[in-house]
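Methods — Computational structure assignment.
A single polypeptide chain was analysed. Its primary sequence is given first, followed by the predicted tertiary structure written as structure tokens.
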Amino acid sequence: MPDERDAFVFLDRGGKRWPRLRLFALAGGVLLFVALVLFVQSLLSLPKLEQPRSLRQLQDRLRVLQAQEAAKPGASRPIWLKPAPRAAGHGAAVSQHGPAKEIRLGFYAGWDPASLVSLKEHAGELTHVSPRWLTVVDGEGNLRVKADEDMRKVVRDAGLVLMPRLDNLQGDTWVPEAVEGLLQGPPARRERF
């Protein structure tokens, strides 16, 4: 009958397993620590995204053009930058919202009844409202207009600028063909649109 110590599965007569196990455990611990440090560092560091050079050039060119337009005698601001006149007794003047150039745009979802309630509550904090009223229905440039009179009254009473939003969403489906038909169609179609 063999000795019980000889039958032990983990018997290491040369004594080499334990030093090797400690070495592997130490190396694994160091690797795990380095991986943990790199992971935490990746969570704390902010990514730096650079704009393409062509986009920066376009932005610079637009700034120059805006400055040139503003410098022209008799130049006026685009209508969407002009505040709507406030009705007497309804809300404060736009200048009390902050700097004259500050625009506060609210989006209006006509399908959600809470949107009208929210607009009434926050109309004094806005300068512009953008409802989803216009939909391009086909590549010919035909529009479906779905205006909301209750919302229009709130906008008028609060003296907000109305900027209807144009989209190509029909029901729950985007219709890219409608936009493509306008962009790739004849110039007369775009002009009519």
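Note: The radius of gyration is 33 Å.
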